[in-house]
Automatic annotation (TrEMBL):
Residues of the Solute-binding protein family domain: 106-470
Family: Belongs to the bacterial solute-binding protein 5 family.
Database matches in InterPro entries: Peptide/Ni-bd (IPR030678), SBP_5 (IPR039424), SBP_5_dom (IPR000914)
Chain intervals for the UniProt region annotation (Disordered): 31-68
Name of the protein in question: Peptide/nickel transport system substrate-binding protein
Length: 559
């Protein structure tokens, strides 16, 4: 197989500079993931407050346990199917993929031995794998497991949200036990970010029909088995989830013996557990940073997170069909005040579905600044008028809806409340409610789509392909839960990954962002800065802008 230097250099540039849309940590960085925590904000868009890496003293030591605090519980331990950060935090530790993404947002080989060999036409990608990599049950990971894993995405009965990411993938072939070849139908600029999903064990799952795999509890919930640094031990819903070191992990046994996720009702409860030493690590609420800074046993680290927070409108609900209504809703919400109050200045107002960290970031998009008078004008143009009670009414129907968020997230709760107040000022009745994380995801995702509006966040993946969230084909079974439809966005989304020149592609992506911003299927809230609080005894920590559980096998305790 030939490999042209020019194409390889171009792909290398893409790998170095790409960063944005749909998957989870080391287990598939081509995809966006719902985040269950919004306790973050953003400072300067061009960097971080610090490098996020703790200074270590002495040599790493083996042994000991840590407790990770979280208010969100996982849903499923299989990265081919989950779309939430709580699940990704676990699968990032239990599974391993061909590649991973480092803290500089560069794709790096993991189970793959090196970067792929790419054919001259860019359609064949061949990866050589490390020998001797083991699953937790002792079976070796081979190219046949890789083929098994990625053929699931291609199967007509696949029920997860990632099928569109592999539309250019024609076949996956095991050349031998440790060499796998991916063949594409056309050049795909985003493909380097699509091969990081956790490899599944063929010997355990090959007899499970693909149509049944998402609901196969025996593996996905009760006993997930991967090739990652930690083995699954037990999950007690509402209490904790326990992992233990995998002695035969191919990169070397983790320094820690055990990692426990402890679940709490909300972030305030987690701060109390941090104060008492009952947890060692948590994503810290911006409202509690000043308090946490007084804890002598705790270090704080911050980094601009690769994400944005938003209010999503269900465009299949008649209330939100008219673009003027959605623009009016954004005009009626003082997002800068949300940044300054709820986020305590640790965020930057967002106007488009792309991170300032991305090479494709473009702020030349329509912006709908706080202007309640303009909001009322737009509503009037759309046929809504104040009735005698001061409530917006049209054809005998009052403007009233519910805004949902997930339990335990005080930031989203507060956003729901303040949005309720803003919209009440212009005559719209809003009910702010919260639900348990798993039930919340079930209600807002396909096939249910049962919501008016939601307060959520997308943790963004490496490549800025917007297809998975914004293409109309992703409404029925994908991540386009707002039911957004725009022919131009569909057309340009189909086009963008076929463009290898990064500047040309950025122009096309800029058109997409501008159109989405004009249509306001979301009210884009802010780009957050993430704060992590951890016990000072934890060493070897590196703060990743996308992956919460980044290289935990390199953490160790200095006590």
């Amino acid at each position: 197989m030939k490999t042209t230097k020019s194409l390889l250099m171009l792909i290398s540039m893409i790998l170095m500079l790409s960063l944005f849309v749909v998957a989870c940590g080391g287990n598939g960085e081509d995809a966006s993931v719902d985040t269950d925590d919004a306790e973050q904000g953003t400072g300067e868009s061009e960097g971080t407050e610090d490098d996020g890496e703790e200074e270590t003293t002495g040599e790493p030591r083996e042994g000991g346990s840590i407790v990770l605090g979280t208010s969100g519980e996982p849903v499923i331990f299989n990265s081919l199917y989950h779309s939430d950060s709580a699940s990704a935090d676990v699968t990032d530790l239990v599974f391993a993929g061909l590649t991973y993404t480092n803290e500089n947002l560069e794709v790096q080989p993991l189970i793959a031995k090196s970067d792929p060999e790419i054919s001259e036409d860019g359609l064949e990608w061949t990866y050589e794998m490390h020998e001797g990599v083991l699953f937790h049950d002792g079976e070796e990971v081979t190219a046949h497991d890789v083929v098994f894993t990625f053929e699931i995405f291609l199967h007509e009965d696949y029920t997860g949200p990632r099928a569109s990411n592999f539309e250019t993938l024609v076949s996956v072939e095991a050349i031998d036990d440790y060499t796998v070849k991916f063949t594409l139908s056309e050049v795909d600029a985003a493909f380097p970010t699509r091969v990081g999903y956790g490899i599944l064990p063929k010997h355990l799952l090959e007899d499970v029909p693909v149509a049944d795999l998402e609901d196969y509890r025996e593996f996905n919930i009760d006993q997930p088995i991967g090739a990652g640094p930690f083995k699954f031990v037990e999950w007690v819903p509402g209490q904790n989830l326990q992992l233990e070191a995998f002695d035969d992990y191919f990169e070397g046994r983790p320094y820690l013996d055990n990692v426990t996720f402890r679940f709490a009702s909300d972030s305030n409860a987690l701060v109390l557990l941090l104060e008492t030493g009952d947890i060692d690590h948590m994503i810290a609420p911006t409202s509690e940073i000043a308090t946490i800074e007084t804890y002598d046993h705790v270090n704080l680290s911050s980094v601009l997170a690769l994400r944005y927070d938003y209010i999503g409108w269900n465009l299949d609900r008649p209330l939100f069909e008219d673009v003027r209504v959605r623009q009016a809703l954004t005009h009626a919400i003082d997002r800068q005040e949300i940044v300054e109050t709820i986020m305590e200045g640790q965020a930057e107002v967002a106007d488009a579905p792309v991170s300032p960290l991305s090479w494709a970031y473009n702020d030349d998009v329509p912006a709908f600044d706080y202007d309640p008078d303009r909001a009322i004008e737009l509503l009037n143009e759309a046929g809504w008028e104040h009735n005698d009670d001061g409530i917006m009414e049209k054809d005998g129907e009052i403007f009233e809806f519910t805004i949902l968020s997930n339990d335990g997230n005080t930031t989203r709760r507060d956003i729901g409340i303040i949005v309720q107040q803003y919209l009440n000022l212009i005559g719209i009745k809003v009910h702010a409610e919260q639900m348990e994380w798993g039930a919340f995801l079930d209600q807002i995702n396909p096939p249910n789509f049962d919501f008016d509006a939601i307060v959520m966040a997308w943790g963004l993946a490496l490549d800025p392909d917007p297809t998975a969230i914004w293409h109309s084909k992703e409404i029925e079974n994908g991540l386009n839960r707002s039911a957004y439809r725009n022919d131009l966005v569909d057309e340009l989304s189909d086009l963008n990954t076929t463009i290898l020149d990064q500047d040309e592609r950025a122009e096309v992506l800029g058109q997409i962002y501008a159109q989405i911003a004009e249509d306001q299927p979301y009210t884009f809230l802010f780009y957050p800065q993430q704060f992590v609080a951890m016990n000072k005894d934890i060493k070897g920590f590196t703060h990743h802008p996308r992956v919460d559980m980044y290289k935990v096998h390199e953490w160790w305790l200095d006590n």
